[in-house]
Specification:
This protein is of the alpha/beta class and 447 residues long. The chain has 4 domains: 8-124, Rossmann fold (3-Layer(aba) Sandwich), CATH 3.40.50.2300; 154-297, 3-Layer(aba) Sandwich (Rossmann fold); 314-375, Helicase, Ruva Protein, domain 3; 384-447. The chain contains 19 helices and 12 strands. Helix 3 links the parallel strand 3 and strand 4 (77-82). Helix 17 crosses helix 18 (418-425). The longest helix is centred in the first third of the chain and has 17 residues, at 107-123. Mean pLDDT is 76; it is low at 1-5, 44-50, 123-128 and 379-389.
């Protein structure tokens, strides 16, 4: 029997062709494999730790899923089936399936895709932004599987809200360092002097207010993983210091003389064009080369709209547990309208919209009219290098077209994060909220 918290692959009606491959994967990943046929009582005991894999086709799978879902309401289910049409895949996703894998396919490829969900259970990662069976997401998951066991530095790129942080956690969760710390630093939130202390630590008296010695994030990470988010926001001085850490694997605390060794694996992320920043002189070319050992590009949601049904199903499931409310049923027309959006905030924006839908549904007022009203604030601009450029200088008059252009660009740049927008524009949050309201821009997040 599996120990508490150990992920187990339960193979339901699985063919002999895949049984050996699944067992091999389980041995490599420290997972258990159980086999059952039909309605097995053991599934109830493992409801929170089992990954259930079903093989079949058409109505037979849907009928079997209804019984399995009652026993395993929170278990990720992957369907392995032959000749899966797009409409059938959508129906399966709406019925609660996490992923659909179409046969014929090499057993190794099937196992690799199933392994992503197993690793979520193992590491506690919530990878809703990495869900999907689109070619773009298959590529991302395949690259993560390949690079995770390595010790190489990885640069994660992509627009705001595409899941760079989740990908970083998944890389850590699949690596040999998964039992060690995962430390995240948001380089775009903290001021230069503060982030230097956050990264490297400080000695007592190193600066005003440094009453005690402070331990930095590199030191806290130990021989685990440190994730440097928004790396493109680092000041030139900090870029030099970070370059030394990556080259020499050593650093000193602020105000200190003792040289410390850095043994953590470094992952970095940005939604900025580092090559353009290098050309503009705002980012060091040598640092970019050090970070860009392996680059993983996260696709925008508009580039993988076929994943919408599975993302929506998973999002509703997570929100239902958190909010303790029932899940709304979306019509085909609603799905179509969601697919027509440009999603500048990507999956993060989608999840916020789903939460608003849940609230309206709980109030018994989610109909076509209220759905359209919820969808109306979703910005339709496509993020580009131009719109992502940071505004500098005084703001135009409130309510002006020029102001709207700047606010929309920063909205796309930050995913609607009011705190970050205010900091980048040099405005008090209250003033920014007022200006956003003049242009009907929604407030997506303030954390």
């Amino acid at each position: 029997m599996s120990s508490v918290g150990t992920p187990t692959l339960v193979l339901v009606d699985i063919s002999d062709a895949f049984r050996v491959a699944f067992s091999r994967f389980a041995d490599q990943q420290g997972l258990e494999v159980l086999e059952c046929v039909g309605d097995a009582l053991i599934l109830r005991k493992l409801a929170r730790t089992v990954l259930c894999v079903v093989e079949g086709s058409g109505d037979a799978v849907l009928a079997q899923l209804s019984g399995l879902r009652k026993q395993m309401s929170t278990t990720p289910i992957v369907v392995i089936s032959e000749n899966v049409s797009v409409s059938a895949a959508v129906s399966l996703m709406r019925a609660g399936v996490r992923d659909v894998i179409e046969l014929p396919a090499p057993a190794s490829d099937v196992v690799a895709r199933v392994g992503v969900y197993a690793s979520d259970l193992s590491s506690g990662t919530d990878s809703e932004m990495l869900i999907g069976r689109s070619p773009a997401m298959l590529r991302v998951r395949s690259e993560i599987e390949a690079v995770a066991p390595m010790q190489s530095t990885v640069l994660l790129t992509g627009e705001t809200g595409t899941g760079k942080g989740l990908a970083a956690r998944l890389i850590h969760g699949l690596s040999t360092r998964r039992e060690r710390p995962f430390v995240q630093v948001d380089c775009g939130v903290l001021a230069g002097s503060i982030i230097e202390s956050e990264l490297f630590g400080h000695e007592r008296g190193a600066f005003t207010g440094a009453i005690n010695k402070g331990t930095g994030r590199f030191e806290l990470a130990g021989d685990g993983t440190i994730f440097l988010d928004e790396i493109g926001e680092l000041s030139p001085d900090l870029q030099v210091k970070l370059l030394r850490v990556l080259e020499d694997r050593s650093y000193e605390r602020l105000g200190g003389r003792q040289t410390l060794r850095m043994s953590a694996r470094v992952l970095a992320a940005t939604n900025r064009d580092l090559e353009q920043q290098v050309r503009a002189g705002s980012f060091r070319a040598d640092l970019m080369y050090r970070l860009n050992v392996y680059r993983l590009e996260l696709p925008a949601l508009r580039e993988r709209l076929e994943d919408l049904p599975s993302l929506i199903q998973h999002g509703f499931g997570v929100l239902s547990k958190r909010l303790q409310v029932s899940v709304p049923t979306l019509s085909d027309a609603m799905y179509q309208k969601l697919a027509e959006q440009r999603w500048p905030g990507n999956v993060r924006e989608l999840m916020n919209l789903l939460e608003r839908m849940m609230i309206v549904h709980h109030a018994n007022i989610l109909d076509d009219e209220s759905f359209d009203a919820l969808l109306a604030p979703v910005a339709t601009a496509t993020p580009t290098a131009t719109t992502a450029r940071r505004h500098r200088g005084p703001m135009p008059p409130a309510g002006s077209d020029a102001e709207r252009e700047i606010l929309e660009a920063e909205f796309v740049r930050t995913g609607g994060n009011v705190a970050r927008m205010a900091r980048r524009l040099g405005l008090p949050r209250g003033t920014l909220r007022y200006r956003m309201s003049l242009h009907d821009l929604p407030e997506v997040s303030d954390d």
